[in-house]
Amino acid sequence: MTSSEQRPGAHMSAEVAEQPEVLAGLVERRTGIAEVAEHIARRPPRFALLAARGSSDHAALYAKYLIEVLLGLPAGLVSPSTATLYGAEPDLRDVLLISVSQSGGSPDLLEVTEAARRQGALTVAVSNTPSSPLTRAAELAVDVAAGPEQAVAATKTYTATLLALYLLVDAIRGGRAEHVRDLGDRARRTLDGSAEAVEHAVDRYRFVDRVITTGRGYSYATAAEAALKLAETSYLAARAYSGADLLHGPVAAVDEETAVLAVTSRGRGGAAMHDVLDAVVARRADVLAVGSAAADVPAALSVPVLETAEEVAPILEVLPIQRLALGLSLARGGDPDRPRGLRKITRTR
């Protein structure tokens, strides 16, 4: 079968299914990530900065929570245009800069990394392309080892990046990856155990036009990635909000025509979502809850996810959401492998 005859969604479907194996393999090969972590630990930073775009930006948001909570360091997301458009060169001595890019080919991230290294930062590239310009520009590199990804919508590279960032932060604090040793198996069980609920969700939401995605804590990154996946594969008007931010104004736009995808896993972030969901349910929104605590909140439909430590829950939470985006795209007559106007590598400056 030629590429032009490839059935719609074949690449995305296959790559979603590959993730348990990819994640298990990355855990097994974590020694290289631990060596990068040891180098960082020998030069303790004052704070950390993260540079990324697209899905990688959501992985960076996840890493921001990891760094602030598990390492106790201030962390922020870089605005690449401050360097690429405005030529800013802040003093970055004793700063850790982590650049996250699946392809490692975006010119703005390359320029940010090169500028940060000149300004004294310890630079780390996290990428699925070991030979990329970004990897060569950084002092240290982490290979997420997801293998070639054919679908435009990132799936296995996204979860592998999350895991690589977790393994890096965990190793910096002296951890031994206790919470992810069986992650590959948990990922497989999550995909299998959520399949029926995802099918029901596709049937229920195939004609929806407006979606709000929301989560708190570590799961805010999952909500952001969910909105992107729904927008790029199904062309939905999807917007992500932190649960707290949703209550600070945007909830006024929620009504019975609004679908709300709420990411709710067990832990402090999930517990903080109860007031948020009470508010959107009171406004008659149609709620789809995804996560290990999905059954504990008011929702029209719940998609189960295996429970794990809260700080690694985003790696599992996003799996059924990827399947949801795939299913909705196909149900609406689209092809998630060929979203209109998009390419696998987006070059920005």
UniProtKB/TrEMBL annotation:
Organism of this sequence: Amycolatopsis arida
Keyword Transferase among UniProt keywords: yes
Keywords: Aminotransferase, Repeat, Transferase
Membrane spanning stretches: none
Protein name, entry field: Glucosamine--fructose-6-phosphate aminotransferase (Isomerizing)
Signal peptide limits: none
GO biological process terms held by the UniProt record: carbohydrate derivative metabolic process
InterPro entries registered for this protein in UniProt: GlmS/AgaS_SIS, GlmS/FrlB_SIS, SIS_dom, SIS_dom_sf
GO molecular function terms attached to this record: carbohydrate derivative binding; transaminase activity
